[in-house]
Design goal:
The protein has ten helices and nine strands. By secondary structure, it is of the alpha/beta class.
Length: about 290
């Protein structure tokens, strides 16, 4: 297992972590200044400063990507909605290509409309089959341009509105169905916050193997959790055994970044960006 205690070469910052404090150009600059080698930006943050500007800043600073957030949200209640989702995923893949991302992360979606407050249907198995069809269709394009797709299973508390793929097992079943040859073009993004509780986590990480472990997202699960979406903790402040899980990942062949992804309305988003990044670096060495 790699030793992270002495340096930050495998630290990446998911740009949501400081999204309230800084624009993307400030985030890239803040990471470059500290020797943080990678980020994983969100599409809205890229759009806010422009795709070309983002690409230029990455090139100038030498900061790379550990992933691109995000594609997905495949289910829809109309044929047009399904087509629109596929178009949007192609655009996400094109942006990820422009920025040289190693993978595009998929938050697959769930009951259409639920995120806005009113589900247009309630059949979660329909949503799941639309997700499978959507990923399969998107894979054709992803293969063509050479952009791996990483399915991110989300904690079941988000099954209605954000992702109806909720366990590693479910995500890997999709990988087996859509990419049985294990080409490396389809895999999973393992986010500790979403999967730490799963009794099958170790065995499913082993099942995935290096070819399907495309990303590793870290933060911590706070007790109590005050908000289901945006009360993630800094590594070391909660109950997730991050180092143990990373050991399982590395035993299975994962050798990439540990990407810090913290949504924290009541704590970290209220602190200065410099303090957040400095804390991420310290905790990366001591807790990840
Ligand atoms: Zn994540």
């Amino acid at each position: 297992m790699r030793d992270f205690s002495g340096d930050i070469q495998w630290l990446s910052i998911n740009t949501a972590t400081v999204r309230k404090q800084w624009t993307l150009d400030q985030i890239i600059e803040g990471c470059a200044r500290r020797g943080i080698r990678a980020i994983s930006p969100w599409r809205d943050q890229v759009a806010a400063i422009g795709l070309d500007t983002t690409a230029r800043l990455l090139k100038e600073t030498g900061v790379g990507l550990s992933g691109y957030c995000r594609g997905g949200f495949f289910p829809a209640s109309t044929a047009q909605g399904l087509r629109d989702a596929l178009d949007d995923n192609r655009r996400a893949i094109d942006e990820a290509k422009t920025l040289n991302a190693p993978c595009t992360v998929l938050v697959v979606g769930a009951l259409p409309g639920a995120l806005a407050g009113k589900a247009e249907y309630k059949d979660i198995s329909l949503a799941r089959s639309q997700v499978q069809d959507g990923i399969a269709a998107t894979m054709d394009y992803a293969r063509e341009v050479g952009m791996p797709l990483a399915i991110e299973p989300l904690h079941p508390m988000q099954a209605a509105d954000r992702a109806c793929v909720n366990t590693m097992e479910q995500a890997l079943d999709l990988c087996d169905a859509i990419d049985p040859a294990r080409t490396g073009m389809l895999g999973v993004a393992v986010d500790a916050y979403h999967v730490w509780w799963d009794p099958k986590l170790a065995s499913q990480i082993a099942r995935a193997g290096g070819k399907r472990l495309l990303a590793w997202h870290v933060c911590d699960w706070l007790t109590p959790t005050r908000d289901l979406l945006s009360d993630r903790g800094m590594m070391g402040d909660g109950v997730i055994e991050l180092r143990k899980i990373r050991g399982w990942m590395e035993d299975a062949g994962y050798a990439g970044f540990a990407e810090v992804e913290i949504f924290s309305e009541q704590d970290w988003w209220l602190r200065p960006g410099d303090e957040v990044l400095d804390t991420c670096m310290a905790r990366h060495r001591s807790c990840v």
